[in-house]
Amino acid sequence: MNPTSHFLMAWLARLLAAWMLLAPAHAAPLTATDENSVRAVVQGQLTALARDDANKAFSYAAPNVREAVGTAAGFMAMVRRSYPVVYRPASVAFLKPERQDDQVIQRVQMLDDRGDAWLAIYSLQRQKNKTWRITGCQVVSNKGRMA
What we know:
Blueprint: H1 3-22, H2 32-50, H3 54-59, H4 63-69, H5 72-82, H6 84-87, E1 91-94, E2 98-100, E3 103-111, E4 117-126, E5 132-141
Antiparallel strand pairs: 1-3, 2-3, 3-4, 4-5
């Protein structure tokens, strides 16, 4: 990925995260089945990352992410470089997912190997084949708090 693409992706990720943190949730609540499916997608990607299975981890990414990153190897390199706590969390705790317009926000509290707390904010969207895929992830410091 060239420096301009990396800068653009980082800027868009920050913009998306700000919107997800500040925007009120809209639309009908998620069904229990959708909540479980959303969590399974994020957990599946975390499991694949832990196993260094780039192809499997990349398979959970939505088309917008796949197009922006290009390859499974590029995706894995980006996660290692830009999201080290997502690549190797010491612990994770899933919060209740929330619908926001046509997306679902899944917040995941994580601890890194130093014991610092982080909040990974995933956005997911249902695809035409009815599966959920990750459209973005932003990681912010959780100021040492875990729920």
